[in-house]
Amino acid sequence: MAVPLIQQIRVGAYILKKRVSGVEKYPLVLMLEPLFRCNLACAGCGKIDYPDTILNRRLSVDECLRSADECGAPIVSIPGGEPLIHKEIREIVAGIVARKKFVYLCTNALLLEKKLDLFRPSPYLTFSVHLDGMRERHDASVCQAGVFEKAVSAIKAARDRGFRVNVNCTLFDGIDADEAAVFFDFVKELGVEGVTVSPGYAYERAPDQEHFLTRRKTKELFREIFRRGKGRKWRFSQSSLFLDFLAGNQEYRCTPWGNPTRNVFGWQRPCYLLAEGYVSSFRELMDSTDWDSYGTGNYEKCADCMVHCGYEATAVADTMAHPLKALKVALGGIDTTKPMAPEIVLENARGAEFVFSKHVEAALAESNETESGGAERSDAA
Which whole-number Å values give the CA distances from 138 to 38, 134, 198, 325, in the listed order? Predict the structure, then answer.
């Protein structure tokens, strides 16, 4: 597992403290989205189709730091949108690092080389660069030619400057195990710390809904990938049991509270991928969300999800509860031949509710009221 020892120790101590205290639901990674605006229009992302009124919103430095304090998670992932567009991203990152929280700044890397001088190398800061495969695959995924080469150049530049760098990879339907193996070999040669890998999930706002993996396809694909990975020393920035889960060897349930999301709308329920309402505080998110109504087997929208933001926290909790099982998988590798764990029954899942646009309508109405009020005050003056 490509995670530095200091991070393993600090995160392990945090989890142990929660377990000893009897806390069952706690955050592991804060997904902090300071903006939705991006300089790409990827087919598998639905963030950039918001109206300009929403895309122009930003979380302030103070809002970001207060959110990190309020949540208390030892790791803060900063996705977007493209966070390097944020004019105060240096202050946001510096403030979180000063709190000795581990920051993963997720970027498509188009601006990374230009922005490197804003940051200082630190064991608490990692640039997580988005790559969904080799050149042709990745550029098709992000719908723009030349992005792969720019991302690779930025990775090398950041590594040369002493920064921690990993690759964030989403695998979609259509990629095969041989192609994925070539990509993972390439990433290993780049010298990054590791790869955060996840199957594509049918994100409801994504323009392209045809290339997401079902759970069965996910398990079969990852078994084939891990079969080809024997002896190739690929480094993944995830727990061994999460990788084992991707290969169909663990029967896990989603724990969405492990990766809570804070963005320009507020605290998003229930998870990073589903937007079914917002609340004003982390405590309200934890206490008022009906967690049992979400997840595979509980909700139709979650049927095919095996994404790390829902299941990595489950795997980490299992690692802490059964360290010998995790060690066996880490040392012996992923079993790609034994029967898969039983699949979650889907028949009793509640039907999908398409409510994601309501908060957008509310935000637009609020903006219109604010603008109207400002105009009235200006006229009165």
Answer: 17, 6, 15, 35
Query: Measured between alpha carbons, how far is 112 from 86 in angstroms, rounded to an integer?
Result: 12
What residues pair up with 104 in beta bridges, in sequence order?
A: 77, 126
Residue in 58, 52, 44, 160 with CA at minimum distance from that of residue 108 = 44
The secondary element (H helix, E strand) that includes residue 279 is: strand 275-279
| DSSP H helices in the chain | 5-20, 52-55, 61-71, 89-98, 112-115, 135-142, 147-160, 177-190, 215-228, 240-246, 282-288, 308-321, 323-332, 358-380
Mean pLDDT confidence for 30-36: 97
**What are phi and psi for residue 121, nearest 5 degrees?**
-55, 140
Q: Give the closest residue to 275 by CA, choosing from 217, 342, 359.
A: 359
- Integer Cα distance of 337 and 331 in angstroms: 17
Under the banding of pLDDT at 50, 70 and 90, the label for residue 135 is very high
CA pair distance 232, 128, nearest whole angstrom:
22
Other residues' Cβ atoms within 10 Å of the Cβ of residue 237: 22
CA distance 177 to 183: 10
Q: pLDDT for 217-261, tens place per residue?
A: 999 999 999 999 999 999 999 999 999 999 999 999 999 999 999
Position 99, amino acid: R
Query: How many angstroms separate the CA atoms of 268 and 263, rounded?
Result: 7
CA atoms of 345 and 317, how far apart (whole Å): 23
Task: Note if the bond before 270 is cis, omega within 30 degrees.
Answer: yes
- Which pLDDT tens digit goes with each residue over 163-182? 999 999 999 888 899 999 99
Tell me how far the alpha carbon of residue 344 is from its chain's centroid: 23
Rounded alpha-carbon distances, angstroms, from residue 295 to 23, 134, 340: 20, 32, 20
Contact 130, 166 (CB under 8 A): no
pLDDT value, residue 211: 47
